[in-house]
């Protein structure tokens, strides 16, 4: 029989509850639930009634020290991911943290340091959208140079619509103290991660962020950001939680081609026969009129159109299985935990740029960011 990794779920709210159910339903082939933990007495009552067979802990340290779990999935609010991750890794327990890795980079770096001092342990992060074969495909196309050097990338990801009731139904959400941000730290970490995974990290960030713009919240519900990659390439990242007709469109223009992704499902890959610079150089005065008069330029490229199906729940199961495979057989991790730092650094830079009203360089000064974040926490508490 296949060996199964014994896992403890820390935080059985919306997300942790879902993973617990997947495990109970036997949908994660190489994992079995060994314990659960939550500080909410209601959850304790709920699980005592529904699943008295699963050991329940109110304190995660007790669960880590129970000897029952060899791995944990950390599904608590964002601020606590690094702290709980550190405690788990220090006790030699394999750790999968939810996204985002944390709220501020200083905290995430501490977690990454402990993890790198324990290479024998598996440390992963729930970037479930990395399992979507579409993003794996375009990463490969770009890494292999098929569209050449990236000149510009844009991601409009406004399909994260959330009504006011979503914010009102939770105490920690959409507050500086409880969540540490809005769409940037809650919904958009998936795209911030994919964006950097596929296109790399920018060197500078300039942002326009709206706080409590269309929702009655302290944190951001809308932003437009300009990334500067330092080599001429730029990127634009737009996200919000109030566009009911939301868009999900990623465009990446390279000097040898272009990728356009719609709704994380459909992709068009155009490949130029020669680089745009070469085609440009080959044009003489005799060609200009035809170009200006709307010459069909499609003769210069071919287009490949692909469609991918990726089911939301199946993505999470795939990350859980990949995490367990890494523990059991050293199968490479699709989303190593240490990668979580990049998305947090991007989110910190976007916030800091808007707070200071100027362009900031990456990585931002971690102490300066924390000081500014703490100011907002203090103002909120007045
Ligand atoms: N990957 C995804 O698709 C995805 C989707 C939703 C949420 N998330 C992430 O999951 C995390 C949790 O989100 P949620 O929507 O499930 O929130 P939630 O509020 O529904 O659940 C959080 C749970 O953690 C418990 N908790 C808080 N502190 C704890 C502690 N110290 N020890 C034990 N339990 C504790 C709370 O009582 C609550 O039951 C967030 O970081 C969020 O970003 C990820």
Provide structural commentary.
The protein has helices at 14-24, 41-50, 60-64, 80-90, 105-116, 133-143, 164-168, 189-199, 276-282, 285-292, 312-329, 340-356, 366-381, and strands at residues 5-10, 31-37, 56-57, 71-74, 94-97, 123-125, 150-157, 204-211, 220-228, 234-240, 248-254, 257-262, 266-272, 301-307, 360-361. With 382 residues, it is an alpha/beta fold. The protein has 2 domains: 5-126 and 312-336, NAD(P)-binding Rossmann-like Domain (Rossmann fold, 3-Layer(aba) Sandwich); 130-309 and 343-381, Dihydrodipicolinate Reductase, domain 2 (2-Layer Sandwich), CATH 3.30.360.10. The strands form 2 sheets. It has a 9-stranded mixed beta sheet. Helix 1 (14-24) links the parallel strand 1 (5-10) and strand 2. Helix 4 (80-90) runs parallel beside helix 5 (105-116), helix 5 (105-116) runs antiparallel to helix 12 and helix 6 (133-143) packs parallel to helix 8 (189-199). It is globular, with a radius of gyration of 23 Å. The relative contact order is 0.15. The protein binds nicotinamide-adenine-dinucleotide. Nicotinamide-adenine-dinucleotide binds at residues 10-16, 37-40, 43, 60, 75-78, 80, 98-99, 126, 128, 170, 186.
Number of strands: 15
* Number of H- or I-type helical stretches: 13
Average of the residue pLDDT scores = 97
| Anisotropy-based shape | globular
Query: How is the CATH topology of the largest domain named?
Result: Dihydrodipicolinate Reductase, domain 2
Largest sheet: 9 strands, mixed
What is the rounded distance between the termini? 58 Å
Low-confidence stretches: none
Give the fraction of residues assigned to helices.
25-40%
Query: How do the SSEs run, as a string of H and E?
Result: EHEHEHEHEHEHEHHEEEEEEHHEHHEH
- How many domains? The number is 2
> Which CATH C-level class of the largest domain is it?
Alpha Beta
Helix/strand structural class: alpha/beta
Q: At CATH's second level, what is the architecture of the largest domain?
A: 2-Layer Sandwich
Q: Beta fraction of the residues?
A: 15-25%
State Rg.
Answer: 23 Å
CATH homologous group name of the largest domain: Dihydrodipicolinate Reductase, domain 2
């Amino acid at each position: 029989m296949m060996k199964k990794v014994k896992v403890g779920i820390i935080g059985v709210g919306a997300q942790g509850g879902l993973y617990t159910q997947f495990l109970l339903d036997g949908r994660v082939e190489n994992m079995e639930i060994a314990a659960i933990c939550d500080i909410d007495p209601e959850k304790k009552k709920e699980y005592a009634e529904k699943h008295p067979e699963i050991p329940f802990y109110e304190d995660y340290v007790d669960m880590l020290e129970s000897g029952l779990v060899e791995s944990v999935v950390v599904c608590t609010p964002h601020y606590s991911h690094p702290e709980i991750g550190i405690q788990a890794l220090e006790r030699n327990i394999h750790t999968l943290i939810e996204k985002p890795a944390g709220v501020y980079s200083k905290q995430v770096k501490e977690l990454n340091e402990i993890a790198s001092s324990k290479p024998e342990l598996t440390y992963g992060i729930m970037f479930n959208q990395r399992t979507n074969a579409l993003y794996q495909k375009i990463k490969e196309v770009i890494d292999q140079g098929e569209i050449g050097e990236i000149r510009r990338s844009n991601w409009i990801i406004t399909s994260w619509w959330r009504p006011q009731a979503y914010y009102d139904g939770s105490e920690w959400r959409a507050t500086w103290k409880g969540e540490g941000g809005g769409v940037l730290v809650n919904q958009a970490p998936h795209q911030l991660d994919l964006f950097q995974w596929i296109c790399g990290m920018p060197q500078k960030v300039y942002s326009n962020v709206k706080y409590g713009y269309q929702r009655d919240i302290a944190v951001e519900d809308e932003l437009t950001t300009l990334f500067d990659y330092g080599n001429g390439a730029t990127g634009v990242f737009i996200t919000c939680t109030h566009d009911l007709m939301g868009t999900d469109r990623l465009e990446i223009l390279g000097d040898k081609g272009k990728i356009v992704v719609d709704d994380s499902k459909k992709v068009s890959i155009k490949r130029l026969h020669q680089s745009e610079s070469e085609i440009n150089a080959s044009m003489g005065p005799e060609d200009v009129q035809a170009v200006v008069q709307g010459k069909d330029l499609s003769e210069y490229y071919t287009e490949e159109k692909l469609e991918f199906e990726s089911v939301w729940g199946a993505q999470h199961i795939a990350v859980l299985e990949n995490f367990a495979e890494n523990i059991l057989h050293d199968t490479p991790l699709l989303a190593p935990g240490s990668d979580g730092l990049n998305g947090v650094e991007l989110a910190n830079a976007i916030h800091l740029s808007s707070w200071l009203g100027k362009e900031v360089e990456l990585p931002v000064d971690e102490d300066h960011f924390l000081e500014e974040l703490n100011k907002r926490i203090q103002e909120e508490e007045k």
